[in-house]
Each structure stands twice: as structure tokens, then as C-alpha cells.
Amino acid sequence: MGNDSERENGSLDDFWGSEDPIFDRKELLDIDLVPTEDRIIGRDSEIESVASSIHPAVKGQSPRNTLIYGKTGTGKSLVAKHVTRSAQNYSLDNGTKMGRAYIDCTQTKTETRVVINLARALNEPEETGISIPVTGLSTDVYYERFWSILDQLYDVAIIILDEIDKLQNNEILMQLSRAGEAGKLDSCKVGIIAISNKISFKESLDERILSSLQDREFVFPPYDANQLREIMYNREDAFKDGVLSDDVIPLSAAFAAQEHGDARKALDILRNAGELAKDEGAQRVVEDHVRNAREKANIDRFSQLLEGQPTQIKATVYALSVLADRHSDREEFATREIYEMYKTITADSALGIETLSQRRMSDKLDEQVFLDILGRVERVGRGYGSGVTNYYYLLEDPSVVQAVIHDDSRFSELEKHRSE
DNA sequence: AATCCACAGGAAGTCTCGGTTA
DNA sequence: TAACCGAGACTTCCTGTGGATT
Asked: Which of A3, A67, A211, A225 is the most exposed place for a label (fewest CB within 10 A)?
């Protein structure tokens, strides 16, 4: 540290040393932060409900399985985590061995991976002598080890399955909810807290699972503007004193309330506003920053989503954007049209990718719909044949889409070819 | 009314990859 | 080491659909 080579960059030292004029504790704006109880706003009755359904667990009895519904950013995970943590602490003090695990099903989609993660989360290798390899064993073996971990270490275990509708199948629910009856577990009781943002999720469930899960069912309502405001005031410390002008938080709250009362979005807007102010070198965050932040948040989200995607996906989205460019009178395009365009794009050697089958490409299109990059409508086909045809459209301006995709060097090469 | 078309999307099978165990 | 294992990315094949065509 501190030798010749760094001296010539000495000008940077000022930069590193400079203080952030806007943010003080930015991490407070992180949605995943679990605040202490007095900071959880407007979810009192929800906390109470969830607590009552797992109440038996603190005495080592079977907790009730619980299903929580609610739109994104309504505090579902927050409440579940908070309540279970508190229950675990209480149990510990009172001689009940309670295990607690949290699985995010957007990351862990398959039955096997869920079991593995659960087993790894709850295992204490020194005590049980059981090892859980990351991969390599058959699903049964993982189950066996998992059950014996539970029996050895815990009186009761509470498992939170977040975004449960993202699971590939529901076998894991079946296993967990019937573990006791099926004789897999001797002494340990298992309780599930399942969280979903789609109310329609229930329809995809097996009768048997449903009956055991439906025990307790809660719907979390969106936050209203007042609650959003309070949530943000509680995290105001993220900013330096006096940096926020008075109307910033109310305005952010109002915007977020318009968009389904999503607390995540509210905090995003607030953070972006702060960042905009910082970039401008402004001393305070004002109303205009908030307005711009809201715009920016949408485009940012979009480009972030798209940037990280594999080339094949960019190629399909790109195909759609080219079509949208060429036909200014239309927005929606049928799978076949997109595939034709996609074929000519991927045939170009500059991209260096294979041309996939139409079947596969249409799967990719649907994935993008799922991620809110594209929209889709079904139409009864005119012309020869077809019952229903899918039409896709961009959710963002074609020029924005192309700008993002052109950041990928291979695609900008492609453009050169074209224009030559 | 029977037939035809072209598409959606499920099912089944193949291949590859990263990893384990005995 | 050989034998397994699960997952994901693909392909091919196939069925159902419902307006257009004959």
C-alpha cells in the first residue's frame, strides 16, 4: 500500500476519501432487511395471526400449517421471518428445540434441491454425523438423511417456503405435510409456512396437500399510502440529516400506492431519487428527483433484466424489436413471424449461436412474458387453421430494447453487417 | 358436414454437465 | 476409478383446437 504507482493516481484519493453527501446508512433501504418489531408497520394483525398458528410449536407441539397470500412487497416474508425468529428465540429459552429454515423457491425450484437446502440449513454435522453433499445422491437418500436430522436435533421445525408457486412440482409439500403420518418422523413435528403471491396457486394443489395446508390461510392486503409513508419515515435514517425535503417521502408513497401498494417499489423509488440527487451533485433530494426516479426505476429494472440474459434470449427479443421497428402500425406479432426474423438473425455468423427450433424459441418467449419483459395475448387465428395463436409485444419502447441489446458487442457487430 | 390447416403446448427421449459415492 | 444422480437445454412427436375451405 502507498507506493509509487499509486502516487500518480493521487487525485483519486480525494475521491475515495470523500463523504457521501446524501446517504448515511443506505442499507436501511434494502427491502430484505428485517426490522425490529417496532419498525414493522401496519401488519399487527397479520403478525398476530401467523404467531397464533405456530404458537403450539414453542411448546413442542405440532404447529399449524399456514398459507400466506399477498402481492409483492406486502410484507409476507418479513412477517414470516420475524414471527418464526421470535418463536425460535422464545423456544430456546424455554427448552424446546425449534428448527427454522427459509427457502426461496425462485432460487430453489426442484424438489431435490429444496430437500438438500433444508437438510443443509438444519444440519449440525458435528452432532449428527450426517453429511449432506451438495449433489450426487438420489432424492430418497436426501430425504432419509433429512428426516433423521430432524429427529435427532429438533422437537419441532418450521419451514418457510417463499414464492412457493415457483416450484416445479408440489411433491415436496406432499412429503413435508405428511411426514408425521407416513411414519418418516418419530418425534419431530414439522410446520410449513407457505408464501405465494398468486391466489390461483391453490388450484394447482393436490386435494390431500390442500386439506393439510389450508389449515390457516391469510391474505395480506397491500399497504396504503399512509403505511408506506410510515415505512419510509422509519427508514429515513438511510439519508443524512436534512437531506430529504419534506415532500419527497409523501410523493414516493403516493407513487408506490398507485402501483399496488408495493413497499419494495416505494423503497426503490426513494433510493433512486437519492442516487439521482447524488449524481447531480445536489445537496438535497427534491420532488423532481422522485419523479425522475420513478421513470428510471422502470427502465432500470428492464435493462437489468435483459442485460443478464443469455444470447439466445436476446436474439429472440431482438427479433421482436426489429419487427416492431419495421411495422410501426403494429405492436403484436405471432410466434411464426418472430421465428422467421429470429432465424435470419441467428443465421448471421457474427452472433455465433445455433438456430433453435420454433418449439424451443416459443418457450423462451414465454419465459420472457413471465419475467415481464414481453407481453402476450392469445387470439383466435384468422386465415387457414389455428385455434389460438399467441401474439407477443414489447413492454418497453423498441428503441430502449435495442439500445440495451446493442450493449452486447456481438449484437452491435450484427448491426454493422446489416447496414453495409 | 366433413376436411383441412397451422399453431400451442404436453410428453418423452437424448445429451451434457457438475457432482458424489463406494 | 466406474457407476450413479439430478437438472437443464434441446429435439421430435403428438394431440387438441376451431375457423376456413370444400
From this structure: A3
